[in-house]
Design a protein that fits this description.
Number of strands: 8
CATH architecture of the largest domain: 3-Layer(aba) Sandwich
Radius of gyration: 27 Å
Helix content: 40-55%
Number of helices: 11
CATH superfamily of the largest domain: Glutaredoxin
CATH topology of the largest domain: Glutaredoxin
Distance between the termini: 77 Å
CATH class of the largest domain: Alpha Beta
Length: about 300
Amino acid sequence: MTIERSFYAAQMRRLTRRMTVLAGVILAGILAASPLSASDRWLTNYEQAMSVAQQTGRPVLTVFTGSDWCPHCKTLEKNVLHTEAFSIWAEENVILLMLDLPQAGISQAIRSERSQVCIKYGVRTFPSVLLIGTEGQRLAGQSGYTGQSAATWIGQMAVHLPAVNVAQTDTDTVCETLDEAVASARGRKRPILLVVSRDGDTTARSQSASLMNDPEFEAFAHDNFVVAAIGPSAQSGSEAEHSMENLLGGAELPIDAVELIVTDDGQTPLFSQSGSQPSIRIITGLKRFLAARQIARQAETPRR
């Protein structure tokens, strides 16, 4: 019995070693087929990126990085640039350009070319991220990385997007007036979600833009509402102005405030909440409204 056990034990050890070797081969094949380099969506030549920007009308999101020596660059890529939220947002809004200046691995010509772009825009800190307009103008910049979540980082950059360059389909268009939203809602049979902030209020407008460009909020809102980003007032004496007074309950919108109002007809408010909260809380509130609305409609439907 002892000899038999020894024989089977030896056989099992040999089988285990073979399985380990096989697993290693399989893993190596997977890694070889899935390179860890940046996505093909990232361009690496400034002139090429600017050419694409001019063709599409989208700004260029440019990341200056040092792949083999900058730890904060790697953290930014892991926490933000490699996330699904960033991929979705970037695909719809910007051209991606990554200018890598490692200690080794690139030619002197490429190093000089990328260094000239750094000099052009005054980049001295890595990582640095610039939003560059179609004419090469600097729209926004961010030096270093302080650990923001992907949603927060995207929001901080999204507020600087030129409105004309935000890519939207016909069904995802954000209405700019109350009348436009009401007309659109009639055709699509959806409630209207108004994102209201005071005209000329920089803080409120920034919060509103950040919310509208949050990937999760944007997808949810456009799947369930006709969305409009508007101010709290219209031309004096107009019907729209009277409607906004009703929707705001006759109260003046405070400075720095963003208010979310749901309505069916553009006159009667059905639900409202602050738009200055985290997007996840806003979405939760809107989901509860939609659920309650569905329950109420089912209760009103006569049973056959």
